[in-house]
Amino acid sequence: MLKRMFVAPDPGRLRLRAACRGVAGIGSAVIVSGLAGHSLVAAIAGGLAALLALFTVTDATVRGQAVTTALLPVVGLPVLVLATVLHDIPPARDAAFLAVVCAGVYARRWGARGHALGVFAFMTFFMAQFLHAVPARLPELSAAIALSLIVSSAVRFGAWCYERRMPPPAVPAPQAGRGLARTTTRQAMQATVACAVALGVGHALSADRWYWAVGTVWWIFVNTASRGETLVRGFRRVLGTVAGIAAGLLTAVPLHSAPAPTAVLVAVCVFGIFYTAAVSYTWMVFFVTVMAGLLYGLLGALHPGLLALRLEQTAVGALAAALAVAVVLPVTTHAATDGWIQRAVHCVRDCTATSARRLAGDAGADPSSHVAELELLLARVRLSLAPLLHPLNPLRHRTARARQVLACLDDCAAQVRGLAEVAADPAASHDTRLTAACQRVEAVVGTLFAPGAEPGAAPSASLNEGPHHHPGAERALAHLHGLESALTALAQPVRSSPRAPFAAS
Questions:
Q1: How far is the C-alpha of 189 from the C-alpha of 327, rounded, in Å?
Q2: What is the full DSSP assignment across 444-459?
Q3: For residue 19, pLDDT beyond 70
Q4: Last residue of a domain, which of 331, 366, 397?
Q5: Carries keyword Ion transport (predicted)?
Q6: 297 and 461 in contact (C-beta within 8 Å)?
Q7: Is residue 388 assigned to a domain?
Q8: Which of 104, 227, 241, 256 could form a disulfide with 122 if both were Cys (CB 3.0 to 4.6 A apart)?
Q9: pLDDT value at residue 503
C-alpha cells in the first residue's frame, strides 16, 4: 500500500502540483491570519477553511471553481453562526447538525458545486464543535475564515493556477432518477440516520468529543454510491485511523505542543492529504488523523487517552454507517454497478457511431469527446466494483464476475480508442462494410440489457469479404469486430444473476 502511494501514475504531475499548492495556500492563509492578530483557535479555523476550499472545490472549469469558492462563505458562515449560538443547547444543536448533514448530502445532486458546498457547510458545523466555538468567538472566527478563503484563493487563482493551461476535463452527467430513485436522496436519508445513531452513541462515550463519530459517518458517505462502497470505505477509514493514532503517539505526543516542529509536521500532513486522496483513502485518513492529533497538541488537549477515544468514536461512526446502508433504503452494489456499466456500454455505442460518421466523410463528427467520457465512466465502474474485488470479499463468484466485466470493458475501451485514432486520419476512406459492422455493434448493445433478449453477436461478415480499400478502413473494421466480440463476451457476466454461481465463458 505504501508503494502504491508513491508509484501510482500522476499524469502531468497533477497530484504533486495540487499537494504543493495546498501547502502553499493553507500555509499562506495561516500566516496572514497570524499577522492579522487572530488567536490560535481562529488561525486553525482559517487554515481548515482554506484546506476545504482547496481540497473540495473540483468544478470542471477555473471559472466554475472561482464561483464555488466565492459561495463557500455564503453557505458556511450562517452555519457557523447557527453552531455557535446553539453550542450550549445540546438538543437544538444536535437537531441542527443532523439537518445540515441531510442537506449537505442531498446537495450532491447538483454535482461538484453542490458537493463542495455541502462539505463546507458540514465541516463548518463540525469545526465549531472541534474548536468549542461560542458566540463570543464568532466575529473573530468569521473574519479568520473569510480572510483565509481570500488568501488561499489568491494562491489558487492567481499565483499558481495551473488549470488555466489545461483543457477542462470531461465530467459524466449524474445518474438520472427522481425522488427515492435518485441515489443522493437515498444517501441523504442513510447519512442522517447513521449520524443520528453515531451522535447518540458518541454522546454516551464522551460528552465533549461525540462529533468525531458524526464526522466519521459523513466522510464515509463521501464519494460512495452503494452499500458495498460504503462498507469498504468504512473499513479503510478505521484502518487509516488506527495507523494515524499509532503515528500520533510517536510524533504528536512527544512534541509537547512545540510550535515549530508541529507546524512542519502539519505541512507534511497537508501534503499527504492532497497527494494520496486520489489513490488511497486509507493513507488520506492516516494523514488527517495525524494532523488532528497535532492540532490538538497545539490546543493543549492531546494525550494518549484522547487518541484512544478517537479510535472508539471512529469505530462507532463506521458501524453506524454500515447499519444505515444495510437497512435504510439500501442501494445494492449490483444496482449501482449495473447503471454505470450501461452508461459505459452506451458510450461505446455512441463513440462507434460517431467514428463511423467521421470515416464516412462527416468532418463535424468527433469521437474524442466520447472517448474521454468513456474513460471517466470506466473509472466510475471500477470504483463501483471495488467492493467486489476487495480481498476480504467472501463471494468469490461475484469477484470473478466483476473481473470479467472489467476485462471486457477495458477491451472495449482499447478498441474504441483505436477506432477513434483511425477516424482522425483524414486519408481513411469510407468502406460499405463499416455500416454493417456498426449495426452489429448496436445490435449487441441493444440485446445486452433488454429483458428476455438472447445475448450474442449478429452474423458477422469476414474481414476478407469484398474488395479491400484504404488501410484505415481495414483497421476500423478490425476495431469494430473487436468491439463486437468484447460486447458479446460482456453479456455473460452482465445478464447472469449476481447470486448465481459464476461460469466463465
A1: 11
A2: HHHHHSSTTPPP-PPP
A3: yes
A4: 331
A5: no
A6: no
A7: yes
A8: 104
A9: 45
